[in-house]
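Our working data are protein records whose layout never changes between entries. The record below serves as our worked example for the rest of this section:
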Amino acid sequence: MADDAPEAEVPTWRGVKTFFPEMTLRVGTSAPVTLEALASALRAAGFRIRHRGTTGFQASYVDWLDVVAGTLNRTRLQVSASTAEGGTGIVVAVRSTGSDLKARKKASAGLSAAVRELRGRGLAVTTTDWAVPESRRKGKRR
């Protein structure tokens, strides 16, 4: 039943006025613990984890039904960690996106599951909404 689904701690980026939004998390633990939780949750949501290192990884999702139908619908997230006051700062940036809502929902579900898991361990976790990256705002004309 859909009413039994947990509320998303991290919503989709639908409605953000950019193709490449990003959001941040602050987690009260080390980068390896945080990155492992994020990678595991995104993998469980259907993303493939690639280029994994000590400071981050890429997560890719391909909708294979769309590939069979003749379109490539791929979404790639870049997850980067840095040391922050009291723990780890994470930036999740959309680097390429497909046109369907399925990958956005899967990313939301995976990131939300990671937030719930980290909070379940008693760790402090804060998130921001998806937004236009600061680097893309600077060149914006009014």
Observations:
- The mean pLDDT is 86.
- The helical segments are 31-44, 64-68, 101-120, 134-137.
- The first strand starts at residue 22 and ends at 27.
